[in-house]
Amino acid sequence: MLVLGSQGGVFFGILCRHWLPAALPPAAFGVVGMAAFFTAVVRAPVTGIVLVAEMTGSFTLLLPMLGACCTAMLVPTWFGNAPIYDSLRERTLRTAGREK
After folding, report:
1. Cα separation of 80 and 98, whole Å?
2. Alpha-carbon distance 14 to 80, whole Å?
3. What is the per-residue burial (b if ≥16 Cβ within 10 Å, else e) of 8-40?
4. In the chain, N or C terminus with fewer CB closer than 10 Å?
5. Angstrom distance (rounded) from CA 89 to CA 72
6. pLDDT(99) > 80
7. Please, what is the average pLDDT of the chain?
8. Single pTM value for the model
9. Would you tell me how many other CB atoms lie within 10 Å of the CB of residue 87?
């Protein structure tokens, strides 16, 4: 999850750097992308922010991570998508019910 989020963030950072030369370096976008993708999949924004901040040591990006994680939490909620662990639990229960 973290690698996918980082790759998406770096790609977005490269695009921003192409159109806005004064933008942050793409690596900063990668760090923010890691936290945002983790939050979108797991729906645990505080865990995502703390995990990425401690792992990368980039505490100066806490505010951008907070904004990205807030958005990453709201968008799937608006579309009605369940968090990954809820989906996996329901699929496991359905599979276990068929085996009986």
Report:
1. 26
2. 31
3. bbbebbeeeeeeeeebeebebbbbbbbbbbbbb
4. C
5. 22
6. no
7. 91
8. 0.85
9. 11
